[in-house]
Amino acid sequence: MVGAHHGVVRPVEALQEIAFWLERDLAPTFKVQAFRTAAAALADLDDDTLEARRRSGALARTKGIGARSLEVIGQALDGAVPDYLEALRREERAPMSSAGAALLAGLRGDLHAHSEWSDGGTSIELMVDAAATLGREYLAITDHSPTLTIAHGLDADRLGSQLDLLDAIRSSRPGPREGGVRLLSGIEVDILEDGTLDQTPELLGRLDVVVASVHSKLRADRATMTERMLGGIRDPHTDILGHCTGRLVQGSRGERPQSAFDAERVFAECASRGVAVEINARPERQDPPDDLIASALDAGCLFSIDTDAHAPGQLDFLRLGAERAAANGVPADRIVTTWPAERLLEWTHRGR
User: Fold this and answer.
1) In this structure, are residues 144 and 118 in contact, taking their beta carbons and an 8 Å threshold?
2) Which CATH architecture has domain 11-90?
3) Neighbours of 92 (CB within 10 A)
4) N or C: which end of the chain has fewer CB within 10 A?
5) pTM, rounded to two decimals
6) Looking at the domain that runs over 98-348, which CATH code has it been given?
7) Where does the chain hold its CATH 1.10.150 domain(s)?
8) 226-279 pLDDT tens trace
């Protein structure tokens, strides 16, 4: 997919790469989805069949193929890099600072990503493909837990089915020793109002990574929110405290103020239990804010730079998180996503 900037590009790969670049650059979802829909419509067709359908006019009449997609397919079939794809590849994007780029180069994986199983936009397979393209060594799929119904959260049965699918994907793709991505099982589990986690202990114990987050009653008073968060952190299954303030600073959902909680107590609890504080790289979150990153540093916390990606192109948000961590002086050895997978998994299984 992305990264093969020379030579022939197949039609489906061209469409998927265009979707990736548009997504990375925060294009409207409908525009991204148009190219991904076109790619899906062609997924089972070889180039000879596509060429025959192009010549007969059947391709132009295929559901999901628009004028721009048709142009991209035609240019790819002719052996050229499609003009639209070439333009996206050449588009100048904001450069990173030297410190941010150095930290990004040391990040091995991403421990917070969503798929179409909850509120993500694509299959797990496409997320893994994008992670491989970006050079990730590991990726955790962390779809939502059941209480978050608006995000189609996974109950115990659906999570069990997803774990079976992850096993099937692992067996059908190159493993880490062959240069592939290590696919980790996980969940973004809600910290409920009473401080418990929104999934059975048995299932949580089977997972590689547990991100615990608050998604509701975000304007609760400081004392209530603090006790709720402490409850989630104290659960032995919790590895990462996700987007701790819940704030939104930009984007289509508008702005949302950060939750109020006792940062000193919360981060002290994280540090004492080895729970990492997430530096959420989504541009609309930028969570925690700088002052709380400093507080977590002072408390001795570990950190996890994660994308919270809901689509393949968003996996590249990792660079935004690296830039923020570097700007705030977070040492690389305190960031769990710089660790090799074996060390990472020893850490996530420490209390289970």
Assistant:
1) yes
2) Orthogonal Bundle (1.10)
3) 5
4) C
5) 0.89
6) 3.20.20.140
7) 11-90
8) 999 999 999 999 999 999 999 999 877 789 999 999 999 999 999 999 999 999
